Amino acid sequence: MAKLRTLSILLSLLVPAHPTRSPDCGGILTPSGLSYRKSGPRSPTLPSVSQPLPFCTGRNQITSVKVAELSLSLIPDAGLRLSIDVDLGVTPVMRLSILADFHVEMNPEGNLELVTSACKPTVEEMQSTEETERSTPQFSLLRDPGNGGKKICLEVSKLLLSPNERLMSLTAPFPVTPSCQVQYVPLAAPMFSEQGITISLQTTFQVAGMAIPLPISPVPFSMPEPVSSSPSHLTLAFSEHFYTSLFFALEIAGAFNMTIPSPLTTATVAQKITQMGSLFQEEQPVVLQAVFRSSPRVVLEEGKAALKLFLTVHVGTGAPAFQSFLSVNVDMSAGLVLSVASTRMMISAASHRELTTDSLRQDDLLEELFLPPIREAVPAQMNGVLSEGIFLPHISSFTYMDVNIVIHKVRKKTFNLPPCYI
């Protein structure tokens, strides 16, 4: 089995890599997701203003800071706009308004990074209630903070440190099994539109610390059109190729190579296959070993997903070392059940849909003898490997809630997860 695994890894290196980097999954953060706020007050950490700002006189010490309004909006084809109104505890009361634009870049390390495009602070003197009752018409005085604006904008740029640290966690490698890791790599800076922020990702897998080349996707992937009536905060889409690549990586890692116990012995097999009697003088337990003769394949259909398995089952005895006396090719098709828990997609193989052997004279006999344990053991082994789930693209301090999973078979074969709430 160890030799087979080594050979499998070496053969995988002969599979041609992607000639160009292409996405196999992605996500759309909608405007409602962008403006999502947990219940209760939620104020940002604002610049320290315990010292008088340059646009205030020395006697106008700022004693308090109160966020009056905060909003974050999309600028199509550009980026984000942050608007903050802050009431400063001075006499007279002043309102500091900050309008800052951001865009997203890819840094040399391949991480996404929020960068300030523009920043404009203004100050407005607010009249007290008594002053507004005595004055007609009401008015206020707008000021340009001058050099103080540079300090404010510098502090605003510091507010991006925490979001950028979280964006870096998007590209962190996540474990699938002890020897296999998955990583979601952005291919370009996100696209900003009225529908939301769209990001395209390429999945990469590492086995034993080495990146493995994946088969080339036969169908180009692109994000599905967002549904304007959907209340979702985030829509994720995964291609058919994503799932096939996942099972390919697990196959290369040897996660699905399995030894299957059997209730049979050489004596009981000899009752059905008379030639067996001359091979084994003493009764020995029969053991099955299953390996992939070609990579698993996932097929997305409307409303359902199917896993196609192409196995070679070696039948033999296990003592003192495995000795095969019969091999049979077995093709299986199992339904996939998908769900989401926290930041992981849970995948399990349902009961088989089809299970066939290759064309041998003893087909019916082989099915009677060997297929029952295969039917039970193969899905159980796969479910054991997948029991921890597969990490979805996410940043730190993030979880998926109220997830609705929809599987579509469309021209570009995408798999959607709407909606996901942060």
Automatic annotation (TrEMBL):
Leader sequence residues: 1-19
Question: Region Disordered: which residues?
Answer: 26-51
Q: Which UniProt keywords apply?
A: Signal
Give one GO molecular function term. lipid binding
Q: Which residues form the Lipid-binding serum glycoprotein C-terminal domain?
A: 228-410
SUPFAM superfamilies, A to Z: Bactericidal permeability-increasing protein, BPI (SSF55394)
Family annotation (PANTHER family): BPI FOLD-CONTAINING FAMILY B MEMBER 4 (PTHR46019:SF4), BPI FOLD-CONTAINING FAMILY B MEMBER 4-RELATED (PTHR46019)
What name appears for this protein in its UniProt entry? Lipid-binding serum glycoprotein C-terminal domain-containing protein
Specify the species: Bubo bubo (Eurasian eagle-owl)
